[in-house]
Specification:
Length: 114
């Protein structure tokens, strides 16, 4: 009996730890509701983070720039707001068409998505 409880507890802890680093994001309509203000750059060389939009929430893991946009802010790990100026942004991103390009280019801002 003790072993099965330990296994169940370990499984719960793994699932909880896995969800902490997931990158499910919700795009807010107001910058005051957002946790992070984001500007979309035209070039990945200008970006702090290269982002790939995943088609499944299960692909959006860790803090690597693999994002899944959710329909409800209650399902999101991070609430973001897209700003019109890079000077108003907390983080500058570039959307890539390849998930293999997703990466942090400026690690000093990585803490914003934990």
């Amino acid at each position: 009996m003790k072993t099965s409880i330990k296994i169940l507890l370990a499984a719960c802890l793994i699932c909880f730890a896995y969800s902490l680093n997931a990158q499910k994001v919700y795009s807010c309509n107001s910058k005051y509701d957002a946790e992070v203000k984001v500007y979309v750059a035209d070039s990945k060389y200008d970006a702090d983070l290269v982002v790939y939009k995943c088609s499944s929430k299960y692909d959006a893991t860790d803090n690597k720039g693999l994002w899944f946009f959710v329909d409800s802010k209650y399902d999101a790990d991070k609430l973001i707001f897209f700003v019109d100026s890079k000077y108003d942004a907390d983080v500058i991103i570039f959307f890539s068409n390849s998930k293999y390009d997703a990466e942090w280019r400026n690690n000093s801002k990585k803490h914003l998505f934990y």
